[in-house]
Amino acid sequence: MERRIIGIAASDGIAIGKAYLLTEPDLSFEKKSVSDIEGEINRFNDSLEISKTEIQAIRDRVAETVGDEEAQVFDAHIMVLSDPELIDSIKTNITTNEVNAEQALMEVTGMFVNMFESMEDNPYMQERAADIRDVTERVLSHLLGVKIPNPSSIQEEVVIVAKDLTPSDTAQLNRDFVKGFVTDIGGRTSHSAIMARSLEIPAVVGTKTVTEGISDGDMVIIDGLGGNIIINPDEETLASYDEKRTKFEQQKEEWKLLKNAETVTKDGKHIELAANIGTPKDLVGVIENGAEAVGLYRTEFLYMDSADFPTEEEQFNAYKEVLEGMDGKPVVVRTMDIGGDKELPYLKLPEEMNPFLGYRAIRICLAEPEMFRTQLRALLRASVFGKLRIMFPMIATLNEFREAKKILEEEKAKLIQENIAVSEEIEVGIMVEIPAAAVLAHQFAKEVDFFSIGTNDLIQYTMAADRMNQQVSYLYQPYNPSILTLIKHVIDSSHAEGKWTGMCGEMAGDQTAVPLLVGLGLDEFSMSASSVLKTRSLMSKLDSTEMKKLADKAINECTTVEEVIELVDNMKELLV
Questions:
Q1: Confidence of residue 276 (pLDDT cuts 50, 70, 90)
Q2: Which pTM was predicted?
Q3: Given 77, 142, 191, 365, which residue is catalytic?
Q4: Looking at the domain that runs over 37-144, which CATH code has it been given?
């Protein structure tokens, strides 16, 4: 009998196939006393090394098939397995208590997991708990000789059903056979959802009960467009979704024809459509999807990929590669945004109750000027190889921007004195992600060259709701009239001073938000490369004058996010 479950649409598309339950392996064991301590430690070391090798192989595969940014999570896993405090504690437990490696492993890692999970005000540490759990399971499986589920071994067309998918699981999904996945937990910004979008695999997450309602082999439809799961559909439903799937695939082929098209609205207004990148390797996706610019180059991955601070030369080469690769098209480079959920082993940051509201991004750069100057020199040297735009993140006050720009100007003067060429056409702007900067945008606009709105943080800071916390995820509301009002103020303020405003957060590629943002007058939209073509297609159907009326109505007449969504949906039904 047909049944339905509703979740969160995390990755576009329709998937139809037999359910493959990704169940937890039996990793139960008994505590044992051991006399051969050295042998037990050797057994542990062997399992550790095998696990490291496996994770490195997964990391390399993800970097090659998806991108370096998505592969970063596995660096954290390797770091866990290389942490001397953790490893030595396990070996000491084996030696002191004369217990088997399995028992020592679970006791020590359990202590670390509990400690990190108890830090409710520190999302970064809570994520580390998940990393420790993931790698512990892998090491334990090798100690017990038990095979953990391997999605890469699937040899028939299926849809994955799981409580959650670890980064390791998601990285091993073979697109030839895995047509989609559905999970009990997670949200649009979870690791698995981001990976699914990169792989273009339909996904629905956060269903809460899907693993209880589906048996291995059930026929399942995953509607990644609407967030619906249909279990054992009847013939009529199956035919209906098969048609929807065909239409969506045809639509994707039509979008590909827009690769070299200009991004213009129905009434001829040009809008710059850009893509976000983490490393120079991501340029392939940018170019293949016909993006007109790089709207956000996250330079912190240069730092996270290094055992020490990257040198000026290393940074210069990376920035030069991207600028040359874009062949004269604009590139917005965000200066180092370390802190919050991104830490460096070689940069000792203070213990903080809430690192997302603490010592991070521009705050670190201004406190560590030599590190900041090195990055700015590399950027300035690379500027002659393309159209560079420099953006400072996490700006809260005008004094922060002024100080950062002053350092930039000092380094520019030094390079010119050294007879090193520097472009005279570098635009310098800020990322608007702190409400204080958004509210004061009319003053900032007098001094910056551009704004780029970082909605991921702006929304969570404005709504006082951590976007990774499922208990308050309902408050992550991009279309809330309060958020739209802030965005309008930022855009209007820039235009009043003859400047431009872009957006590089998740909202820029959100198909419900796009008509509103066009109406608000947003000049540049930057998103994941895979969203560029469908957004270009949507924009070609929108009349900017009519969208202005739509946006005004959303801000002035709507009182809830539901009313805004209904307003946009009604408008979309009229599009031809």
A1: very high
A2: 0.73
A3: 191
A4: 1.10.274.10
